[in-house]
Amino acid sequence: MLRRLIILLYLIASASFYLPGVNGQSLLWKISGGDLDSTSYLFGTIHIKDKRVYCLNDSVLTAFEKCDAFAMEVDLNPENLAHLSSKMLLPDDQTLQDLFTEEEYQLITTVIEDITGMDILLFNRLKPIAILSLVMNFQFANDVDVSVDEYLYREAVTKDKKIIGIETIEEQLEILETIPNDYIIDYFKNIEHAEEDMEIIIKLYKSAELEDLLEMMLEDKSMVMIQKTLLTDRNIKMSERIQKLIKEQSVFIAVGAGHLPGREGIINMLTRAGYNVEPVKINNK
Prior knowledge:
By secondary structure, the protein is α/β, with parallel strands linked by helices. The chain is built from 12 helices and 6 strands. α4 (102-116) packs parallel to α5.
């Protein structure tokens, strides 16, 4: 079921054990108390361009307006995006054919042509994770111009809010490149089931059933091997950086929804640090 693991990368490849002590079912959480002078908010996103996941009603937008700063996983400024694009290329002396068997390369070629309608030679120097991203961007709905994260980033720019990247481009790339190539091949082998899985994920996301999303991830035993890198270690680092940010100003924080729940999720880490983290009711139907 590795295809589910790959799809759940849209939630930042998140998996952890759901913590029953974290009550409430929401994508939006209010952070207050402790040593804070102002209130901040934590919002779980999903990184797809599908209008069904635009859960941006008055509660979310009001919270966004109240905050002085906007924090997201990576600052999407043009310089960072250009840097990201350059890092998606293999070394000059290497192509995809050097990384896969002849049979695997033929599978990638077939999938690229079927999904995108383009020739593999156009992408032969892209890293495997970039090839996966390309296929998934073509495969799933693109009925809006930008993901929720990108929309909020643009709003923050328009409203002249301070914009903060919680992680760096290098940190995210290092994490993504820990995903083994055979996981990507498994996704391509089972690509016909991916849309069905994505529909389940979108339904659970809209209902803020975060624990069920995590349960889907945990069905895949392969996740155990990379869970610490993809989720737990990142949650610790992100929680520490978020705590520093919210002490300095009010911040609207948007991160992949998979980072929120769990024994080692951001909600629980902030609670353990002495903050009040409360769900804000929003209508995601």
